[in-house]
Amino acid sequence: MSSGRAVVLSAALAALVAVLLAGCGADATPQAPDRGTGSSTLPTRTLKTAPGTETTPAAPARSAAPSLSGPLAFNVKRRTQLRLTPGGRVVGTIRTKTNFHSPTILAVAARRPGWVLVRTSIEKHHVGWLPLSAGHLFEEPRSIVVDLSKRRLMVFHRGKLTDAYKVAVGTNATPTPIGKFAVTDRLTTGNAQSDYGCCILALTAHQPKILQGWGGGDRVAIHATPHTWTLGNAISHGCVRASNDALRQLMRHARLGMPVTIRA
After folding, report:
1. CB 26 within 8 A of CB 42
2. What contacts 42, CB < 8 A, 6 or more positions away?
3. Residues forming beta bridges with residue 78, ordered by sequence position
4. Taking residues 153-161, what's their average pLDDT?
5. 32-71 residue pLDDT tens
6. Residues 147 and 134 placed together within one structural domain of the fold
7. CA distance 177 to 207
8. Domain containing 81 — which CATH number?
9. Least crowded by CB within 10 Å, which of 75, 77, 94, 188?
10. Is 256 a domain residue?
């Protein structure tokens, strides 16, 4: 790839992050005394999908295999329409790749014969129905729970707690949204000292209370930060922050479509 093209791609991806993610890099409260938090601008290096993201689990012998249990995810293999009810009104289009060029793998909220209810990042339709014929189902053994009051992120494997990390969350004015969401993309920044740290887990969640004058987007993420003094505080514009070490561990376990519950 030529250096000119690399610069163009880097700028385009940085701009895409600005459009999609809600103010994750900028602190919403004063900085720690005598310790800067770095620039609140977005990453300048090319964001890349994390290694392994392109490899999705093999399709089961039958897409509707009744033996599947626990949290499920749906790998969209062909462009299809999102519907309000099974076979009902079309409310969106789901493509095989996300805006960050990851495979589209969506957490499953419910099933009906021939249909799956999935969690999406479409702002007005966080859930919708897709035909089972558009992809395949597989199990998601791990899940994430973020406890906002305890400022704690927990990882569970088949219901058993395996890891826990201290995190920073949104302020009262710009709260981290509560609800059931999912991981849509696993991204690396190429610069662990950036405001996004080493890594980003983009979520289906949106921030409903953007500050006036904020020019970024409203997507929420779990991302790293080199500014560990912020951890344990309500300080972000809505994103959940953890240390670089914590995000590197999460990146080894988190898969696309991994369910994420954020509770008060």
Report:
1. no
2. 14, 17, 18, 25, 195, 196, 216
3. none
4. 96
5. 333 333 322 223 344 567 666 544 454 443 444 457 877 9
6. no
7. 6
8. 2.30.30.40
9. 77
10. yes
